[in-house]
């Protein structure tokens, strides 16, 4: 049975989290550049923080950092990496347990594409908009059809759902849900949410959007 639920995604990463974390040692250069260019201080948020590799970057730039992930297995790995430098929460990207307008800087990378429905993904973008301060900024990324592993037209208007297997030690494979965004679709998804699109680029097969909320119409 094809279980397209956020609970199913969480169970997947509970199962593979320890092994997955060992392959995710270093921060992405795109995230490093974004954080390096941001104003220091304030409150930062890492949505889908995994093992804390990007939350650690934020902790060097912000006064307070919250890391959120659905997987307890990955949060255990994050505790080992960031200790008490980051407040770690188990939670849902589509229902952030934070008050309005409280985040000055955020990263939401390699997580949006795991949410199993368009409604979930839209809700998560709207939630990011809700918690961002009026002058806050965030980096959002998702895997795209521009990645060389996919045979998709360069001018595709919509992406597709798929699964990508994760291979555990011993050879067992665990399927992981992805929504692969066409770049034009990703741009529309951001623009149609509560976020204001500041810039968009493709790098290493991923769409990256720098977003805020200031100037966004009702």
Describe what is shown at a glance.
By secondary structure, this protein is an alpha/beta fold. Helices cover 32% and strands 29% of the residues.
How would you describe this protein?
This protein has 218 residues and is α/β, with parallel strands linked by helices. It is 32% helix and 29% strand. It contains six helices and nine strands; from the N terminus they run H-H-E-H-E-H-E-E-H-E-E-E-H-E-E. The protein has helices at 6-22, 29-37, 53-61, 72-82, 118-131, 183-192; strands at 43-47, 64-69, 87-90, 103-108, 132-143, 160-167, 173-180, 196-203, 206-212. Helix 1 (6-22) runs parallel beside helix 4 and helix 2 packs parallel to helix 3 (53-61). It is globular. The relative contact order is 0.15.
Order of helices and strands: HHEHEHEEHEEEHEE
- CA radius of gyration: 16 Å
Oligomer: single chain
Estimate the strand proportion: 25-35%
Sheet/helix structural class: alpha/beta
Strand order of the largest sheet: 3-2-1-4-5-9-8
Main sheet overview:
7 strands, mixed
Runs with pLDDT <50, length 5+? Answer: none
Give the CA-based shape. globular
End-to-end CA span: 40 Å
The average pLDDT value, as a whole number, equals: 92
Give the helix tally. 6
User: What is the helical fraction, as a range of percent?
Assistant: 25-40%
- In total, the number of strands is 9
